[in-house]
Amino acid sequence: MVETLSPRDRLLETASRLFYAEGIHTVGVDKLVTVANVTRATFYRHFPTKEDLVVAYLRARDVEMRETVAERVAAASRQKTMLAVLDFVGDYTCSPGFRGCPFINAAAEYPDPTHPVRLAVSDHRRWFRETLAGLAADAGHPEPDYVADVLFLLHDGALQGGELDDPQAVRATLFRAARELLGLTDPATS
């Protein structure tokens, strides 16, 4: 027996695909309910506004990224945890259908920093930067906050550059810069 998604989960899955591929503002409620095969009443029962669905989409992406980062870190040696996180970023930029960072994309569509969508973006970004700082501190780096700031900028640049330029070249540059920052100039040591 094939398990089917609940109407809420279908809406969330549909929104995740369409918002990322087409942009949040270009995807209307009519398209979401049609593709998810639910009624408008069902949509509004689960998400009182489209922005509620956008926030749920970003929160779900955040959970996925946190889980993936945790898996990558758990599989890496203590000295290479930051590179494991950047490996995830590099893999992501080279994945089929890659269209930039969903959080940066959402922020571009919602410029008000107090809007719930931007607050979800800020929560994710704060977690990621804090994760990098914690990993740098755990690895014994003398300036973990500086390392986190630089790696965070590299992350943002790679996620946008991977969409606009050659993703393989962006990935290679990301790793070279990270290795140099972390004092791992020999590619064999990373």
Please sum up the structure shown.
This protein has 190 residues and is mainly alpha-helical.
Give an overview of the whole structure.
- The chain has nine helices and no strands.
- The longest helix is centred in the first third of the chain and has 26 residues, at 50-75.
- Helix 5 runs parallel beside helix 8 (144-164).
- It is elongated, with a radius of gyration of 18 Å.
- It has 190 residues and is an all-alpha fold.
- The chain has helices at residues 7-22, 29-36, 40-46, 50-75, 81-93, 102-109, 116-138, 144-164, 167-181.
- It starts with 6 loop residues before the first helix and ends in a 9-residue tail after the last helix.
Fold blueprint:
Layout: H1 7-22, H2 29-36, H3 40-46, H4 50-75, H5 81-93, H6 102-109, H7 116-138, H8 144-164, H9 167-181
Q: Which terms would index this structure?
A:
mainly alpha; 9 helices; 190 residues
Helix content: over 70%
Q: Quote the beta fraction.
A: under 5%
- Rg value: 18 Å
Q: What average pLDDT do the residues reach?
A: 92
The number of helical runs is 9
**Strand and helix order:** HHHHHHHHH
Distance between the termini: 45 Å
Report the strand count.
0
Q: Extract low-pLDDT stretches.
A: none
